[in-house]
UniProtKB/TrEMBL annotation:
InterPro entries: Ub_conjug_fac_E4_core, UBE4, Ubox_domain, Znf_RING/FYVE/PHD. It comes from Gongylonema pulchrum. Pfam families: U-box, Ufd2P_core. Belongs to the ubiquitin conjugation factor E4 family. Residues 118-187 form the U-box domain. This is U-box domain-containing protein.
């Protein structure tokens, strides 16, 4: 859970610094007025990525449906090379992490594509509109993917649908589309 939150935060910041909208960040005399040094910030973010670099963290990055795209990582690598922001060995290590993350992201996308839109809405997360991999049932009867409700519970201990108090112990495991199709194939 913490890994996914950290990956989301890093992905969001890196997409703002190097993504398609990065040109909107221009500020006159930013260093003097705000101590704003985007190159230094990017280097620090890259250092965090590299310190956490692992298969598990790559999975956390790939699961970030809001900010992660392989294109943003490609833009980061290009910017690092073009502006000599990081040493070559760090850029190479980040490229390895980016490749591992993209592979996991593509596998996840393929898995969702294999199911297509042919599965009932009961298997879609109502908040993110994605295929639930670990569904849970809330006391209100609503279903959500565990990772999304857990992220919500970190900031608000309430049911997002009813605003009633809610904690992790009240969540009941549901059946995922993967388990459902497996049991249907056995029948």
């Amino acid at each position: 859970m913490l890994g996914e939150r950290l990956a989301s935060m890093l992905d969001y910041n890196v997409s703002q610094l190097c993504g398609p909208k990065c040109t909107e960040l221009k500020v006159r005399d930013a260093v003097r007025r705000f101590t704003w040094e985007p190159r230094t910030l990017l280097q620090q973010i890259v250092t965090v990525y590299l310190n956490l670099s692992s298969e598990k963290f790559a999975e956390c990055i790939a699961n970030d449906e809001r900010s992660y795209t392989p294109e943003v990582f490609s833009m980061v690598l290009s910017r690092l090379r073009a502006n000599s922001i990081a040493p070559v060995n760090e850029i190479e290590r980040l490229k390895n992490l980016a490749d591992m993350t993209e592979r996991i992201w593509k596998q996840k996308a393929q898995k969702e594509e294999d199911f297509g839109d042919d599965f009932p809405d009961d298997f879609r997360d109502p908040v993110m509109n994605t295929l639930m991999t670990d569904p849970v049932i809330l006391p209100s009867g609503h279903k959500m993917d565990r990772k999304h409700i857990m992220r919500h519970l970190l900031s608000s201990q309430t049911d997002p649908f009813t605003r009633q108090p809610l904690n992790e112990n009240q969540l009941i495991a549901g059946i995922s589309v993967y388990e459902f199709t497996r049991t249907e194939q056995i029948r």
